[in-house]
C-alpha cells in the first residue's frame, strides 16, 4: 500500500512570513504557480500571467519562486514522515510517496496511522492532499482527488485493495491529470479521448503505435502490470536549514519568531536521530547582501529547546545588524551521539546541568572566552597538574556528573555515620596541623590555591622573607620527577607567615633557592 502526500502550496509555504491577511501568489517566468486563499477568493488562479493577476487583484503581492527552498522543505517533511516507514521516496517537485503497508500492524491499523501522519504534517503548517493506492503512480494520481474516494478501495478485513473498484476509479480520471508531457496530453485529447478508461480500452499495440512507449509504460505501472521500482530516501545525518523571508525583518525581537521555528526543527532532528552537539551556528543576510554569523556555545550537550532559545536571545543582543534581514540559517556542526541517561521515575534534574547552563549564559553575555575550565592532569609537579581551557574536554561533563552523583550518594548516609565521619575528620585535623609552633607530621598536605608560577622567596641567614617573615612549621616532603628530560628535585614545607597565613613553599635542590607554590585557605 502506498500513500502519496502532495504539498499543493509548497512554493508558497516554503517561504517564511506569507500572510493570510494579504493576497500573495508565487510566480515563475511571468506565470503564477500558486496563491493563498485570499488571492484565490479575489479571482487569482494558478497559470495566469502576472499582468492578468494584477488586473484581477490590484493589492496582490507576487513573490518569485525559489525552488531550492521548496526542495529543502520537501526533505524536511520527509524527515517528519520517515519514522512511519523506512520506504519513502521524494517525487519532484512537491510529493512524498510512503509505503505504509508494512507499518499497519505497528500503528494498529490504517486509521491511526493516517491520523499520526496528518498530525505530523499539520504541526508544520503545511497544506497536504493524500491519496491511497496499490502502486506509487496510482497513489500519486489519487492525491488529486479527495481521500474519501481512494480510502474505500482498501478492504480492512482482507488487508488488500479491491482491484475491481480500483480499476473503475482509475478509468474515471481525466487525462489532463496524468503527469505526462503537455504535448502528449494534447495529442491524446485531439483523438477525443477524455478519460484513462478510454486509453485502457485500446490495445497495447495501438497505444504504442499512436502515442509511444512512454504512455504504455505509465499505464502498466499505474495498474501494477509492470514493476515500478522506487529510490528510497536516505536521510543525511546533518542539520542545516534556512528561511527566506517575503518581507524583510528590521528588529532583533522579530527575528526570534523564525528562530523558534528553526530551533523546533533542530530539536525534532536531534531526538529523531539521537544526536546532540555543543554549538549553534546562526547565519544572517540582509537586503544589501551583507552576510554575518554568530555562534552560540553550549557548555553541555543537553537537548533543550528553552535553553537553546534563551542563549540565542542573549547572543543576538550583541549582534550588530547591518540592515533589514531577508535570510536566516541555522546549523549544528560536529554532531555526536546523544548520551542517553537512564533515570528513575522520581529522580530530580542534576544540579550540574544548571551549573553548565549558567556558564552558557555567561558566555552568551560576555563572549566565548569569558569562562575557563580548570582541568586536572596526570602530573606530579604541582604547577603542571592542572590547566585552564576555554571549553571543557569531551569527558569533562561525565566526570562532573560522576562527582555530583558521588556527593549525592554521600549525603544519603544516615546521621550516625555522618557524625562519626565528622568526629574522625576533626581528630585528623588536630593531628595534622598544630598551630602552637610544633612541626607538623610528615603527611601530604596540599593547599587550596596554587600560584600559576612559583614565586621566589628572599632569604637571609636567619629567616625567609616573602612579603613578611616566614617560619617553617612542617617536616620536608621530597619530590623528584622528570628525571628523563629535565629533572625536578624539591623539598616542600608548610610555612606560616607573620600575619598567620599558611603557605606551601619548597626548596629547589637544583636552583638552590626557595619558592612559594601555593596558599592554604
TrEMBL record:
One of its GO terms (biological process) is DNA repair. Keywords: DNA damage. It holds the Pfam family IMS. Residues 21-143 form the UmuC domain. Residues 392-428 are annotated as: Disordered. Belongs to the DNA polymerase type-Y family. This is DNA polymerase Y family protein.
